[in-house]
Amino acid sequence: MRGPHNIWRLIRTGATFERTGAMRVVLDAMDAPPHLRLVARVLGKPFAWLGYAGDPSLPPVVRAVTALGPAYIKFGQILSTRPDVIGDELAAQMRVLQDKLPPFSVEEARAAIESELEMPVDRIFSAFSEPVAAASIAQVHRATLAETGQEVAVKVLRPGIERAFRRDVDAFYFAARMVEILAPSARRLRPTEVIEHFEGVVLGELDLRMEASAAAEFAANTEGDAGFRVPRVEWFLSSRRVMTLGWADGVAANDIDAIVAGGHDRKALGERVLRLFLNHALRDGFFHADMHQGNLKIAADGDIIAIDFGIMGRLDEYTRRVYAEILFGFIRKDYRRVAEVHFEAGYVPPDRDIDDFARALRSVGEPIFGMDASRISMGRLLNFLFEVTERFGMETRTELILLQRTMVVVEGVSRSLYPQINIWEVARPVVEDYIRENLGPKAMMRDLGRTARVLSRLGPRLPQIAEDLLMAETRRHDLERHPNRRRRPAFWPSVGFVALGAGGMALAVALGAAL
């Protein structure tokens, strides 16, 4: 799009994908049309020698993106949350793109810290380790605060990472436009929107103050959750390129041998992981969207500690209620109600037949509930559900895809801790509590109270808003009927709208006082 470097970068990218065998895999996953495959073959084959070889032990696509560098690795991580775009199999491969890059030097990390915090590292920390983890955007060091002796984790952005990402994102936009031009059928995948989503996520991660803010919000929301911890942000030692958190001391959630050796109750841990996620998604509307085993630690006292808050999910209150009603409907096998919720939320076009949709939902739920309890999967249910809703014209919703992807990951964590876990048995009380608090009479009164408060704030402006709307509508009708003539709006309708506005304000004040 901007600059000839895009063409060269894309040639190098295509060459690497061709050389590693990733090109065919990607085209198959996207169900690319024959002419696009031909273009990719003609342009890729002669330049294959320009591509990076990568690590032959890795799957083709993972091999290609790790060879191409940080922006491509991060893009792969983001795409792993979009099976609707790249397919389930390729999305599963992309999920292994964690901590795949070599670290940069301790000297560079220390220089970055001193530049950002404007203090010598030795004055801040009495000890500062070699990198303990290196990912696509940043790496982490273990350190000890000089003043207090507290152990902390110091996350430092890679040198020059912002410029590298800007360059590669520019090339991604160029590639998306080319795909839309050369393969109109691929527009259904919305490649430009995918790149916009990627850019938005990365821009947030390139400013560690945003991740620190997410960690602090998550910690505040979950402060009362028994058996769960979020490391505390050290705000005075955090900036745009450096973030300092309390050190999370524990064993990784995927180290089952260490968990058993520590005497932890694996069943309780598995159930707690699932309950915590559902509470965060439903109760708070703010959840850890990368909750895999590597981002969870088990402390010596059995607490679960979450780390890495670069990818967080957010659901508005209405979406949470819809999600809870859908889950609750499946729990009760009330497929008609699940269908009604989809139509009420506008997820399915109103011209579709609700009875046909309910019947399709039954075909999703019944086989799953016929399984052994240990095999019942909420993630599988959501996968099947999205397939059905797609057939009935439901458009892709990014927030639900992220929720579904995280649900699958959380299920995997829970089952790895306790394979016999009954997902629905654990989920039922959480969903029922949420339904009771947010869809009953108490919730209705709470909603009325909120509405009254909003109306009371807008009350003084309601007459003017009504007047403006009336004037605009009258002018529109007048111009449609008499294009060459202007007419003043009638007086009495205006008075009526003023009275309506005043009455609305009075009602709002009265409701606010009553509630």
UniProtKB/TrEMBL annotation:
One Pfam family linked to the record: ABC1
Keyword field: ATP-binding, Cell inner membrane, Cell membrane, Kinase, Membrane, Nucleotide-binding, Transferase, Transmembrane, Transmembrane helix, Ubiquinone biosynthesis
GO molecular function list: ATP binding; kinase activity
Pathway: Cofactor biosynthesis; ubiquinone biosynthesis [regulation]
Residue spans crossing the bilayer: 490-514
Superkingdom, natural source: Bacteria
Signal peptide start and end residues: none
GO biological process: ubiquinone biosynthetic process
Domain called ABC1 atypical kinase-like: residue spans: 97-342
Family affiliation: Belongs to the protein kinase superfamily. ADCK protein kinase family.
Record-linked PANTHER family: CHAPERONE-ACTIVITY OF BC1 COMPLEX CABC1 -RELATED, PROTEIN ACTIVITY OF BC1 COMPLEX KINASE 7, CHLOROPLASTIC
NCBIfam families, sorted: UbiB (TIGR01982)
Protein name listed in UniProt: 2-polyprenylphenol 6-hydroxylase
Species for this entry: Mesobaculum littorinae
Source species taxonomy: Bacteria, Pseudomonadati, Pseudomonadota, Alphaproteobacteria, Rhodobacterales
GN (gene name): ubiB
